[in-house]
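Hi, here's the filled form for the chain we discussed.

Project: internal
Contact: R.S.
Residues: 579
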Amino acid sequence: MSRWPLFLATLAAGLLLGWWTIQTPTPVDANAPADQFSAGRAMADVRVLAREPHPTGTPANLAAIAEMERRLTELGFTTRRVVTPLAEKPAQRLAKWGGNPNAPAISLVAVRAGKDPAAPAVALLAHHDSVWASPGAADDIAGVAAALEVARAIPQATQARDLVLLFTDAEELGLVGARAIFAPGAAADPIAARIGVTINLEARGGGGRAMMFQTGPKNGELVRRLAAVAPGASASSLAVTLYESLPNDTDFTPVKLRGQAGLNFAFIGDAWGYHSPLMTAERLDQGALQHLGDSALAITRDLVTVPELPARTENAVFASAPFVGIIAYFPATGWVLLAGIAGLLVLAAVWRRGEWTLGGMLMALGQAVLALIIAGVLMFGLNLLSGSVGAEYYDRLAALRRLEVVAALAALAVLLFLAAAPAGSLWDRWLAWAALCFAGALVAQIVLPGAGPVLAWPALLAAIAAVLGARPGASGMAQVAPAALLAIPGLALGAELFHFAFLGIGAPMPYATVPLLIPVLALLAPMLPDGPGSLGNRRPALLAGGIAVLMAACLALWVNLDERAPSVPPYAGTEKSQG
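And the returned structure, exactly as it came back:
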């Protein structure tokens, strides 16, 4: 019986579930109960504070500072200003924007007392300045408005400790305000030493789900607390690992350099909106604001009301799983997971020892490696065709959604070509590709434990499916049907990780996402046709793969021939952006 319908249905279901996991929640209107985060209420602050561009030192910036002071007083905070002169480089950049290089950065430190003033405080951090020419509704007035709405939703009477709101200035000029507050040692503002946990709220784009993508050191208990109180939050230790290797900074950088605990949240969808003149309050995705606020409120409310803050423990390995939420564990648990995967694969191999050969497995393994190489070459070639190599950064951000589809079509084409390739037995391919995913998970566990969920979790699903399929008496569709059901959440996890990875690094290096195909191969292996087959039988898959490549090429060419995006900042190409 042909497994094509099952293959197509499984792939479609996995991608659909993956699409669902990256959707933003429905914004809550201003009439929501007082203890909920409401994007509708937060948008009132966004509309006022992001009426116009407000770089450091401008009249609009000073007006925004006065408005924030009014709002903080209204919420019961005691507020003071931290005035920081600009160093040479930030002053030069401000002058390039037409600003006054002698204007200082004016950050706000606001404190609302809890029951125990001696207890370590919890801080919400966001920057209030924008780049030249952008109203900055997302970057980072969304963060400011979210912090104000979080503070409003937490009654002061419930605070076991102080709640601190830090609204920094001149982040876009080089993290000036945050560096002054969280300077090393005794040079820091007095508030820095009183803070036990800092939660930074940022944006690089105008929409999408907010990802917790960076932590302070020794994050284990803090991440587990986030998983417990904010199951709807998105988080990934892979994102933490990748971000550490990128030359990017946010206001959380000085916090981390001081060795303090904290979490860094940001939404990075609708990338066209990053520093764009078009990033007005009307264009801000309110669902993104809602998700950022929901995540921040859940963890802030927990931390500010509990008797003790989470202990500093070994960094956790974690990721968001469909229907489950954030799963977090110590790196050592990864070895237990790998041992379980290995045992399951060995059991499946023993039960089906007459249906696979070493030669057949090696051939299937060679096909998988060749497919990964082809995927990388194809993505590289399509990237050249799209004109993204060496292209203007902001213009590529505006095309990121189309470029993501290009990469996805390239990956789909490779899967279809694999389906058309002559193969050995079902178990040659199934065991070989599951073993490849296990090997990748093993390497990740040794070299980069934070990347473990990307490979280990799908490898576990593939191993469980293999044992269920290999059980004595199972044959035909009874063998592969359990694999299809288990593949769906694994494919959804892979689709979500691909989406966030592509938003982070996709335009210049889409081929960096190719390793994410390894678990896809392991999960889909039993649904692909096996045996040599005839050319006639393979022709539909070859034709479908060719169509996918053609569609990807046309889309890439469209990006290349497109006019410069209207969302590109006027200073694009003349300087490196800060954040």
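Let me know if anything looks off before we file it.
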